[in-house]
Amino acid sequence: MTMRVFHWLSRAIQLVTLLSFSALIIVVVLQIISRFMPFGFMWTEEMSRFLFIFSIAFGAPLAMEKRDFVRVDVLVGFLPATFRKYYDAVIYLVLGAFSTFLIYYAYEFTMIGTNRTSATLDISMSYINASMIAAFVLLGIYSFLNVYLVITEPASEEGGAEE
Fold first, then answer.
1. What is the DSSP letter of 117?
2. Cα–Cα distance between 82 and 157 in angstroms, integer?
3. Which helix (H) or strand (E) is 56 found in, with range?
4. Which of 3, 22, 36, 55 has the greatest number of C-beta atoms within 10 Å?
5. Measured in whole angstroms, how far is the alpha carbon of residue 133 from the centre of its chain?
């Protein structure tokens, strides 16, 4: 049941990421085309910035879920598989704790934007800034889920000092 919830959460995040990134591509292409026209769209620069923020805010948790963040594991690769397993769990635990810690500051940042609107789109900046709350909540959830998954799955025998 719980993993089914995470599956549907992941699917929803994938959809939001896909939509925001696709819209970003469309807006940037429109911005490029408008450079060769006698008129320009004033809102495209601001909209592309906001869509980029949303793409990152929802794409980063997907990378955390799939454990696809870039990592340098040259030295860790020489360690025994069991030690690597607990090392990964500690790393995900620290990332989850840090993400959870940042939720409060993301909320404070969002509240700053409550009375401000964007220059050309006239959108409340709190909507844009709230993407950071969503990002840190989702990063925390997937970090703590990875701690559980890393500890409960059998240790991988690839690499390590035993070879």
1. B
2. 9
3. helix 44-65
4. 55
5. 11
Segment holding 136, helix H or strand E: helix 125-152
Confidence of residue 160 (pLDDT cuts 50, 70, 90): very low
pLDDT of res. 3: 83
Query: What is d(CA 137, CA 153) in angstroms, rounded to the nearest whole number?
Result: 24
pTM: 0.87
pLDDT tens digit sequence for 26-69 = 999 999 999 999 988 999 999 999 999 999 999 999 999 998 88
Phi, psi of 124 (to 5 degrees): -60, 130
To the nearest 10 degrees (0 to 180), the angle between helices 125-152 and 44-65 is: 10
The values of phi and psi at residue 79, to 5°, are -85, 160
Q: What integer pLDDT is reported at residue 73 of this predicted model?
A: 77
Q: In which residue are the tokens 């690839």 written?
A: 158
Polymer length of the chain = 163
